[in-house]
Amino acid sequence: MEPVDESWERAVCVVAHPDDLEYGMASAVARWTGHGKSVSYVLATSGEAGIDGLDPARCGPLREEEQRRSAAVVGVDHVEFLGHPDGAVEYGLALRRDLARALRRLRPEVVVGMNFDLTWGEGGGVNHADHRAVGLAVLDACRDAANRWVFPEAGDRWDGIGAVYVAGGDVATHFVDVTATIDAGVASLREHRAYIEGLGTDFDPDRFLRDMAGYGGMAAGCDSAVLLRSFSV
After folding, report:
1. How distant, in Å, are the alpha carbons of 34, 149, 162, 172, 179 from that of 111?
2. Model-wide pTM > 0.90
3. What is the pLDDT of residue 121?
4. What is the CATH architecture assignment of 2-231?
5. Sequence-ordered strand ranges (E) for 16-86
């Protein structure tokens, strides 16, 4: 387990839904922006199918606004939504093209994605289909973005991505020490008020994130940590 190399200036985090990044990664983002780094968020959907009691036409704009507020808490001011249908994201050329276009425009040195495995750990529940589609497409889009002959209509090639990390998977190779920024991570998750209330449970963002980061810290050798897997693309 090694600490993430933080000798970079620009990162892009790519996930499927509003709130995906707030279940852990936002604490790492707060550390990075606190060190003066630029971090952007790209979301495949607006999360419009995520609250059972709220019509998608109302839910989508509400969740976009919650995501913007949540991002601002950890120092992120660039949040974009690609408009793919929540709950029905398809892995394929259209998704790869949209992601490659975003990466070429934002020109990150580091890209962070989410778990694309079938399940959440050994014995865990089945991972959301959108997570699996977007997580895999992120890896492919990093390579696509560097190839001038792939999706030439999606902007000039960008081959400056030096590291790709995936959060939430079964295997971890790197960590980010978030001991000093876990409070910001909790505050960021709390901004998703409508979504959390829509769960209809007594979910406690503070306890959830601190427990998870505490387990990560045990593996990393610090109080609180976010664990990531590095991929070469």
Report:
1. 18, 21, 8, 16, 22
2. yes
3. 72
4. 3-Layer(aba) Sandwich (3.40)
5. 38-43, 78-81
